[in-house]
Specification:
The complex is a heterodimer of chains A (about 180) and B (about 120). By secondary structure, chain A is of the alpha+beta class. Chain A contains five helices and seven strands, in the order αααβββααββββ. In chain A, a hairpin with a 3-residue loop joins strand 2 and strand 3. By secondary structure, chain B is an alpha/beta fold. In chain B, strand 3, helix 3 and strand 4 form a beta-alpha-beta unit. Chain B is built from five helices and five strands. The chains are: A alpha+beta (about 180), B alpha/beta (about 120).
Chain lengths: ~180, ~120
């Protein structure tokens, strides 16, 4: 099965089709590309636990990257340290066994790779020309949406636990 | 390959390790690594590498700015941009800045080898 077909199959076995009408085309495209990239570069045996939108979200260990341009967006990866370690190891295959700088770098490397491939795809489709800021890591961040936005949380179930991927499409060319 | 000096600039330690591993496997042992565009410009001036591999999205100084500064210092510099952000806009900027080639991440080892051999003077 081709990778895009696998992504469609994974998404069809989740609540994606129910929530899809409430998501912007940008967010829909991001989710579809995300599942394709996770399947290709991390693990093809994933299940979507849920896709939901919220107004507020607290991240303990922020591993994020801004997508800049119009539209712009905030993207991040969240999970418990033990699960993030396993995610990082599954992606990087470097013997990562603790939630240290190498682990965080591996997670940010995946986020940067996926976001890069996402904006290249949008560029090739002549939809928009976006860019990326350097990935960043901080702790204890409260995300609060503005009036016209929602944080989309894509919870992906791996064999070792659930990793949450966050996307918040920002109005205009704004950044958080 | 002993006389060929290569400089890799990427803020991701994974990307640097991966590329250095590939280059070593092709027989290139003299590989210098730095993690941002500013260090790349400074290291270029010190070491005069034969080929520079530069990422675009980096802290401190991005790869396009670093490319322009290296080319300003040495118009004959061979710079290959290696990035996940190969949008039409970025590709135009990279070529305009003076880079000789572009490799889309994730890096394919055979493509890297071909591009490298094509650009070795």
């Amino acid at each position: 099965m081709a990778n895009d077909e696998l992504a469609v199959s994974i998404l069809s076995n989740s609540n994606y089709n129910d929530i899809k009408p409430s998501l912007t085309a940008f967010v829909q495209t991001y989710i579809e590309k995300l599942i394709e990239d996770i399947s290709l570069y991390v693990d093809s045996s994933i299940i979507i636990d849920s896709i939901e939108t919220v107004d507020n979200y607290r991240i303990k260990y922020e591993l994020s990257q801004d997508i800049t341009g119009i539209p712009s967006a905030y993207s991040a990866i969240d999970g418990t340290p033990d699960i993030l370690v396993k995610f990082a190891e599954q992606y990087a295959k470097l013997g990562i066994d603790s939630f240290d700088d190498l682990c965080k770098e591996a997670i940010l490397d995946f986020l940067n790779l996926h976001n890069g491939l996402f904006i290249v795809m949008l560029s090739k489709l002549n939809l928009c020309e976006l860019s990326l800021n350097a990935p960043k890591q901080t702790e204890d961040v409260d995300l609060t949406t503005r009036v016209d936005g929602k944080i989309t949380i894509i919870s992906v179930k791996f064999s070792f636990g659930i990793v949450k991927f966050l996307l918040y499409e920002l109005p205009g060319g704004a950044t958080l | 390959m002993a006389d060929i000096k290569l400089l890799i600039c990427d803020d991701s330690i994974l990307a640097r390790k991966s590329m250095t591993g590939m280059l070593n496997s092709f027989g290139y042992e003299d590989v210098i690594e730095v993690s941002n565009g500013e260090d790349a410009v400074n290291k270029y001036k010190e070491e005069h590498p034969d080929i520079v591999f530069l990422d675009i999205v980096m802290p401190v100084k991005d790869g396009i700015t670093a490319t322009k500064e290296i080319i300003e210092f040495d118009p004959g510099a061979t710079i290959i941009v290696v990035s996940s952000v190969g949008t039409q806009t970025h590709l135009r900027e990279v070529i305009k800045a003076g880079a000789k080639d572009f490799i889309q991440k994730p890096v394919d080892a055979q493509l890297l080898k071909q591009v490298l051999e094509h650009n070795i003077k």
